[in-house]
Design goal:
The protein is of the alpha/beta class and 380 residues long. The chain has helices spanning 15-31, 62-80, 93-101, 114-118, 126-146, 155-161, 181-184, 207-215, 235-241, 257-264, 278-281, 286-293, 304-313, 324-336, 338-354, 362-372; strands at residues 6-10, 35-41, 46-48, 51-56, 84-87, 105-110, 149-152, 168-170, 194-198, 224-228, 249-253, 269-272, 298-301, 316-319. The protein is built from 16 helices and 14 strands. The two termini are 18 Å apart.
Length: 380
């Protein structure tokens, strides 16, 4: 491009929580010639791989993130005076509207179906969830009309916005093809009889059933569950540690991307056992495609969309995520059929190379930016 265009990527969440999204988007924009600044709760200002990081103080809790941190992000965004602002968190919708009122181009990046996710928020009173979900859907829909563009992480999410914003595109958060190549290349005979779960560790994502399933496996397998991530809420860990089957769990804590690849190169199965909440059934979890990219079989919840992916590629097994016995049987099958397990992993890896990769998606993001910056089509 003839003139350097400044892009401000805004988030109120620490990048450790969602670095996969920010890093890939920012790198794609930098590679395309944009000057990218990531405004984010962080320790310090710095430049990483051509991405300028503008730090704001880390929030002390959920309420602080939605108020104080959002305001600090807005102040830094105004100071930045970017040509395009790209924000990721629903609590930053007011920030996006304020920037739009200043005549700025603003893109709302929708990672999840927010109204449906409210229905499964454990910290909200049950009686309030349906009402809050309806209010959130109306407000999010009204706000989306004002934005310059909307990026939806899945086709299902996009359906809500296609009639509301003419610049709505689907940019799916698939993995980079080469990110987990080291894990995929690790010989199967060198792998331990272990299964892995990587991501937020919570009851609605099936951690209790995972741990209980490990206790149902035969002792002869000497199988372990490698848990990588943070517990949310923290008290769930205290409950699980007291179970006899916890002896089969190896707790790894939060891992960076390099360490995730290392762990996936040592195991024979990846678990993604979300419970059947409305926002889960149509979701496309990153970890599902990351396990496939790492060349390991997946054991996944038997949801219609996930069935299309897992059965369609032959990359794993489907189970009832609420049934520890069914999960244990699936784990035992994979661990005791190494040739079939390795073949499942290869099929998943090939599917990522051909279809489920970031390289196929980033062009959609760049095309949206080309549209927004075409002066005769989109005013500031």
């Amino acid at each position: 491009m003839s003139e350097m265009v400044r892009v401000g990527v805004l988030t109120s969440v620490h990048p450790a929580w969602d670095v996969r999204i920010f890093h890939k988007e920012c790198k794609a924009l930098v590679k395309a010639g944009y000057e990218v600044t990531l405004v984010v709760p962080h320790e310090q200002d710095e430049v990483v791989e051509g991405i300028r990081i503008k730090a704001v103080p880390k929030p002390t809790g959920r309420l602080a993130r939605m108020t104080c941190t959002a305001w600090q992000v807005y102040r830094e965004a105004v100071e930045l005076d970017a040509d395009v602002y790209h924000f990721h968190d629903p609590e930053l919708i007011p920030v996006g509207l304020l920037l739009r009122a200043r005549g700025k181009r603003v893109v709302y990046d929708v990672h999840e179906d927010v109204p449906r996710s409210i229905l499964s928020k454990y910290y909200l009173p049950r009686w309030s969830r349906s009402l809050l979900a309806r209010v959130a859907e109306v407000l999010e829909g009204l706000a989306s009309r004002a934005f310059s563009g909307v990026v939806a992480a899945t086709p299902v999410i996009a359906e809500r916005f296609l009639g509301l914003n003419g610049n709505c595109v689907v940019v799916q958060n698939f993995p980079l093809v080469d990110e987990f190549s080291s894990a995929a290349n690790e010989p199967w005979r060198h792998r331990a009889p272990a299964v892995a779960y990587v991501g937020g560790i919570s009851p609605e994502r099936g951690v209790r059933q995972m741990v209980e399933a490990m206790g149902l496996l035969p002792d002869r397998l000497e199988a372990t569950l490698k848990l990588a991530g943070r517990f949310d809420p923290p008290w769930i860990r205290d409950e699980l540690v007291g179970l006899p089957c916890w002896r089969r769990v190896e707790e790894l804590g939060f891992l960076d991307r390099l360490r995730v690849a290392e762990v996936l190169g040592t195991v024979q199965v990846g678990l993604v056992l979300f419970h059947p909440y409305p926002n889960h059934i149509s979701a496309q979890p990153n970890k599902l495609f990351e396990y496939m990219s790492a060349g390991i079989p997946v054991i996944a919840s038997d949801f219609p969309l996930w069935r299309q992916i897992v059965q369609g590629t032959g990359c794993g097994l489907l189970v009832d995520p609420l049934d520890p016995k069914a999960i244990a049987e699936a784990i035992e099958y994979v661990l005791t059929h190494p040739e079939e397990a390795e073949a499942m992993g290869r099929r998943g890896r090939e599917a990522v190379k051909k279809h489920y990769n970031w390289e196929t998606e980033e062009r959609k993001l760049l095309d949206l930016y080309d549209t927004l910056l075409c002066k005769d089509r989109t005013p500031r």
